[in-house]
Batch of 2 targets.
Target 1
Amino acid sequence: MNDQELIQGCLHKNLTAQRELYDRYSPKMLAVCHRYAINREDAEDMLQEGFVKIFLQIGSYEGRGSFEGWIRRIIVHTCINHLKKNKKFQENIELIHAQGMTTRSEAIPSIIQAKQITECVRLLPVGYRTVLNLFAIEGYSHREIGAILNIEESTSRSQYTRAKNLLETLLIQRNILPPHKQKTEWLVATR
């Protein structure tokens, strides 16, 4: 079935269509959930909660943009709501702004596997990890992140800067990123 057939089937509560939609998109969306979750169980909970929302809201998909992108937005918002609901995000947000902080950036060799970086990202405090994911991976602006997380735009910038610094430190400690190179960009530049 193509996406339109899946959507129609899901609108009619067809279990075969729902299963196929889940099977088609859940592996990618589980990877999204892993970027926000502390552990596999949390990621799976986020995924399940997200797919419940997808099936309930599938009638709101208007065909503009990619269907996968629409699914991803629901999953990302579900992850954030899950963190907020469980107070894991709020406990880890620091409201001290990162004015005057220096960022040392280095080129990540292309041979580094995404799994190693993902493991290091998972070690970041929840607030840092959430802002890093929303900004560098999902492409939200700091203003949008502030609105989504109910924080100031400057707090989003601060969290992103701190996340980059801590991630860089973790990558160096694990010998994934060589410590001897000078400043070059290896992660999305602060907007």
Target 2
Amino acid sequence: MATAAPEATEVVEEEPKKKKPIVLIIGGVVGLIVLIVGIVMGTLFFTGYFNPKPVVDPELAEADAHGGKKVDTKPGKKTKDSPELTRFEYSYLQIEREFLVNVSGSKKVMSVQIAVMTHYDDRVFENVKKHDFAIRSAVMDVMRLTTDADLVKPEFRKEMAVKIRDSINTLLEKYEDFGGIEDIHFTSFIVQ
């Protein structure tokens, strides 16, 4: 008996598929980005960044800053009793001494007296009196810029009143953190 020889089976080894290196790099970069974003978001979450912010009342915050005592820095408005609506009471303060300056580029002299008007309380007038010298200097600086051509303009006095008001308010805001002057009125206006 003859035995049959085993058939030779050919074993073919297949090579494992190699992953392309570009896919590995992209996967690593995406994984790194996800990790970094996760760390940042987790840190923000645990530090309370996403929690709603508490509403802070400015008056209470100011009171806390001054040891629990409420400090009123701005003057309150004076009101008039009126049946229909709330109206504010206007107060006036005459600046005692006149302002005397030379008209720019001319031999003329300008002399004015002014009154300031506000609807805030008397603290505005106290501030005006307190800073009298600085206010006089600022008003005279505005007046010194006047030329002969300016004097003949129809709206000259109104424009000068606005400039004087703005310069006084700027000065008071610098020194007292609040201006409060609403309008300037000339009680005397002489150009010679």
